[in-house]
Design brief:
single chain; Rossmann fold; 6-stranded mixed β-sheet; binds adenosine-5'-triphosphate
Length: 596
């Protein structure tokens, strides 16, 4: 798949109103800090605003031969105070901006881990990661600087205009004419900055997608000699990011220099018109000087306003991409509703632990049904095995019990209650699940073992290590249980990973143990040993097993034969060999049993 065309989250951008609402939500918890930063910025701006007036007084006093010491000291104090207050305000705002970014990252990370599996499968993880890392960074500028720059810029701009109006209305008219002209041109440029930034951020997401694709299958890439091709993919995305980044920089440069241009043009115009007015005696020269100083003072508020708008355009693109993740549907989290599965032993009498009632299911509306009217029951103790050809829907049975997905039709009952009526956390905490590919997480072996049972004691760990035949592995590892495994740590073999996964599931002391091809990579000796362990566990736990190798399940108490999303037959090995043609054929090929 071309990373450029990889499916991403809903691409509908937010409207301007929604963006401002989202920005407001980010800032609400920090409103007092923003207000303080704003106040400091305004004080700083006011200090600057008084300077031209002070200069006018200074020039007037100079003309009348008065002393200047007092006013010079006042001016210096004004400058120092204004700068100190502005610096403090800038610190408060930067700190607030960092807090906004952190809050957004925390919320997004929490949300990503609660995504429904169907949503998670739709979006490349690299894209999701870039939204948590790169897009949130863009929030920094928009969250506080934009707001404060817009507010202080607007206040200082209006105040300077009022002062200039008081000095000379004609010169003000000339100035405003130029500013409006240049401002109109800037307004045309702004949407281009937003578009280019959004594209650049998308391309950054594509880089992550392309990298995640190859880093997740690193050996495959090397074995296939695909390094150059895959590097070219990453480069193509990087080039796209560069192109859009440069485009955005170009428009930002145009917008950024507009404030200078406006003031320079206004300066020339004011100099021409003002000079003529001074020459004709309509205004004194001190008024022209003060007016020109206000004109230069205007550079700051105007550039703040331009900055505010261009940062807003950048930030709006990021807010939109973050909001797209916030729109993805997540799993319910309320532990109080539904209740937990009772912990009573499976040996005690109680309802059927797992029952499928006419269950139909498809992964997405555009995909065919993987289950059609599937019905079966699992007894409270003993081992129930699911067998059948690849793609028959065996693993999906486990995914439906775990409520990773919800049945499209019919009901999945656990302990006599629809899985949708149990609390999700309560349901899953009663299940031990060993997945087909038995992933190991980056961390120590101990962390991997207690991942699903953080409260496990050292005795519990020792017990499962022995049961899962992991003692020799622990002895071999340089730091025993505290040896890092997984990424960058000691590498575990496929069989070792499976044993770690089984130990992890057993440590949870589950009511239901789901084993999906859990022993497929073990050598014969270890497989036999673990089969005994599982048989022992099945005496007091409900054990469900998916297996391709019939040899691993011939002793199961009940075998469910699945084919093309349907249950073909249910029975013991002997019954099925006698009654079901598909099972008899599987047995004949795998176990060398004579066919009927
Ligand atoms: N996450 C998914 N999204 C879409 N389709 C899926 C998904 N997982 C599985 N499928 C499809 O659903 C069908 C049943 O898959 P399932 O993994 O349950 O079969 P299985 O019997 O366990 O196969 P195997 O023995 O090869 O593991 C297959 O056609 C598979 O392609």
């Amino acid at each position: 798949m071309n990373p450029a065309s990889a499916p991403t989250t809903e691409e509908t951008p937010l409207s301007a109103r929604e963006t401002i609402k989202a920005l407001h939500a980010y800032l609400r918890p920090h409103r007092w800090a923003v207000a303080l930063g704003l106040l400091c910025a305004l004080v700083g701006a006011a200090g600057g605003l008084l300077q031209p007036l002070a200069t006018k007084t200074l020039v007037d006093r100079l003309a009348s031969g008065e002393t200047l010491t007092g006013i010079l000291i006042a001016l210096t104090v004004l400058v120092l105070l204004g700068t100190a207050v502005e610096a403090f305000g800038a610190y408060v705002l930067e700190r607030t901006a960092e807090s906004v970014v952190m809050a957004a990252r925390r919320t997004l990370a929490g949300r990503l881990l609660r995504l429904r599996l169907a949503e998670w499968e739709r979006i490349p993880p690299g894209d999701l990661m870039s939204r948590v890392t790169s897009d949130t960074t863009l929030l920094r500028a928009v969250s506080t600087q934009t707001v404060v720059s817009a507010a202080t810029g607007a206040v200082a701009f209006v105040a300077a205009i009022v002062m200039m109006g008081c000095l000379d209305a004609v010169l003000l008219g000339v100035t405003l004419g130029v500013v409006v002209l240049v401002g109109g041109a800037v307004a045309l440029v702004m949407p281009r900055i937003a578009r280019a930034t959004e594209r650049a951020q998308e391309a950054v997401g594509e880089i992550s997608i392309a990298l995640e694709r190859v880093l997740g299958a690193f050996r495959k890439v090397k074995a296939s000699g695909a390094e150059e091709r895959e590097t070219a993919r990453v480069e193509a995305a990087a080039r796209r990011a560069w192109r859009h980044g440069v485009k955005s920089a170009k428009w930002e440069a145009v917008a950024g220099s507009a404030d200078e241009l406006a003031v320079q043009l206004a300066f020339l115009a004011v100099l021409g018109v003002g000079g003529a007015r001074v020459a004709s005696g309509e205004i004194p020269v001190s008024t022209l000087i003060a007016f020109l100083l206000y004109l230069f003072y205007l550079i700051d508020p105007v550039s703040k306003l331009v900055d505010a708008v261009s940062h807003y355009q950048e930030g709006a693109a990021a807010i939109s991409r973050i909001a797209q993740v916030e729109r993805l549907s997540t799993e319910p989290t309320d532990r109080r509703t539904g209740g937990c599965l009772p912990r009573q032993a499976a040996t005690e009498p109680g309802p059927v632990p797992v029952r499928f009632e006419d269950v139909s299911f498809r992964y997405r509306p555009d995909l065919p049904y993987t289950h059609q009217r599937v019905s079966f029951e699992v007894p409270r103790t003993g081992m129930t095995a699911f067998v059948g050809p690849s793609g028959a829907g065996k693993s999906t049975v486990f995914a439906l019990i775990e409520r990773f997905y919800e049945a499209t039709g019919g009901r999945v009952l656990v302990d006599g209650k629809d899985v949708r009526d149990w609390s999700l956390a309560g349901l899953r905490s009663a299940i031990g699940y060993v997945e087909q590919d038995a992933p190991v997480l980056a961390g120590t072996l101990r962390e991997n073992l207690v991942f699903a049972a953080p409260g496990a004691t050292d005795d519990d760990i020792r017990d499962v290590l022995t049961r899962a035949r992991l003692d020799p592995l622990v002895e071999r590892l340089p730091h025993g249980l505290d040896t890092p495994v997984g990424h960058r740590g000691s590498k575990l073999s496929g069989g070792e990973r499976q044993r770690v996964a089984i130990a992890r599931a057993l440590l949870r002391r589950p009511r239901l143990l789901l084993l999906d091809e859990a022993t497929s990579q073990l050598d014969a000796v270890n497989e036999l040993a673990l089969r005994d362990v599982i048989t022992e566990v099945a005496r007091e736990t409900t054990v469900l097993v998916v297996a391709h190798r019939l040899s691993t399940v011939t002793g199961a108490d009940r075998i469910v034969v699945m084919d093309s999303g349907r249950v073909r037959a249910v029975g013991s090995h002997e019954e099925l060999v006698a009654q079901d043609r598909l099972y008899a054929r599987l047995a004949a090929t795998q176990l060398l049993t004579p066919t009927r």
